[in-house]
Design goal:
Strand content: 15-25%
Number of helices: 12
Distance between the termini: 30 Å
Strand order of the largest sheet: 2-10-9-8-7-3-4
Largest sheet: 7 strands, mixed
Order of helices and strands: EHHEHEHEEEHEHEHEEHHHEEHEEEH
Shape: globular
Structural class: alpha/beta
């Protein structure tokens, strides 16, 4: 199959009423962030801060991390490409299935790519015990992995992540850890490497690990494009700054990001809602005999008829067909969790498709 770099949210050439192909917070942009952005419109004639000093300071305070270890970008994808360009890997490994932009970024620097495939086990997909041996025999100098995974929403426990990161540090393998969906997870401490990263920064350990995070998904800022990364390797961050133009983060995004981080009630309400609605969606999909995979994120992956995508399109609903994820076919689909009203509409249409 020829790889196509398609994503969710590609609605502009389609007649769509409901877009379930994207994984964005159903609550939308926090009101305070919206107000901050609206208030900044009169300052659009001023160049934005190229270093995002105030935004980085707010992120640092939010996660209790030194702002010098943080870099902001035009979405997490911008920082992904910069990290790949800065490291210039010769042989990279992607833990797959995974976001197709990883492959695109690696191809942009002429890197040879191999895929370590997750294995299905019951209602989830998992990393097996052979990953480290596999890396050791491949001559890999860059590893990319997502936690929670995309498209399955599977979580990798922090003990396993720490084992992988320590191994890669010993073998001088750069690691890009994509945690863009981690903010939706209720028990982050069981999965996130943020605490591990925090200790590395405090110890000034320069191992090449880049942790990707974003405002795009959790704070409903997909159209504004705002992401950031965290790394204890300040020299790598400096190289990443050289791998793209200045002013990659516009002034309105910076204002919105600062305001969004202060919304603790929004954060708590989102996490509670996503967990409840994910269980609701899973139960109803399984009731209609769809194979649903266990997720800790704000989306679900399930299996259905190869024609389900077209059937749903005919009903004005866009779902994410996962055929262009490495190792998957046309029977795999991903849906983002939306409002209860929208979710019920989707479930009703899926029910009719089964009939």
């Amino acid at each position: 199959m020829k790889l196509t770099y398609t994503h969710g949210g590609e609605i502009y050439d389609k007649q769509i009423q409901y877009d379930f192909s994207v994984n964005v917070n159903p609550f939308g942009l926090p009101k305070q962030a919206e107000e901050a952005i609206a208030g900044g419109l009169s300052s659009c004639h001023i160049y934005p801060d190229t270093k995002c000093e105030k935004l980085r300071q707010s992120i640092g305070e939010h996660w209790q991390i030194d702002a010098s270890a943080i870099m902001c970008g035009n979405g997490a994808s911008d920082l992904l490409f910069r990290a790949v360009m800065a490291w210039r890997p010769r042989q990279a490994c992607i833990v797959s299935p995974a976001f197709v932009e990883y492959t695109k970024a690696l191809k942009s620097v002429g890197c040879e790519i191999s895929h370590y495939m997750l294995k299905p086990r019951g209602d989830t997909w998992e990393i097996q015990e052979d990953l480290l041996d596999w890396l050791g025999h491949r001559g890999v100098d860059l590893l990319i992995l997502t936690n929670p995974g995309n498209p399955f929403g599977n979580g990798i426990f922090v003990d396993k992540m720490t084992e992988i990161l320590n191994f890669c540090g010993e073998h001088h393998i750069c690691v890009i850890v994509d945690e863009c969906f981690m903010d939706f997870v209720k028990e982050k401490e069981r999965y996130s490497v943020l605490d591990w990263m925090r200790k590395r920064i405090a110890q000034k350990n320069k191992g090449p690990v880049v942790l990707l995070k974003a405002f795009t998904k959790f704070y409903g800022m997909a159209g504004l494009r705002l992401g950031y990364c965290i790394s204890s390797d300040l020299s790598l961050l400096e190289k990443m700054e050289l791998c793209g133009p200045d002013w990659s983060v516009n002034g309105l995004s910076q204002l919105g990001g600062i305001a969004a981080l202060s919304q603790k009630d929004y954060e708590r309400e989102t996490i509670v809602y996503i967990e409840k609605e994910r269980k609701y969606m899973t139960e109803h999909l399984e009731r209609e005999h769809y194979k649903v995979y266990s997720s800790i994120a704000n989306f679900l992956c399930f299996r259905g008829s190869p024609s389900l995508y077209e059937q749903m399109m005919g009903r004005g609903i866009l779902i994410r067909q996962c055929e262009n994820f490495e190792g998957l076919d046309k029977t795999f689909y991903r849906i983002g969790i939306k409002t209860r009203k929208e979710n019920d509409i989707l479930l009703d249409q899926l029910r009719q498709c089964v009939k």
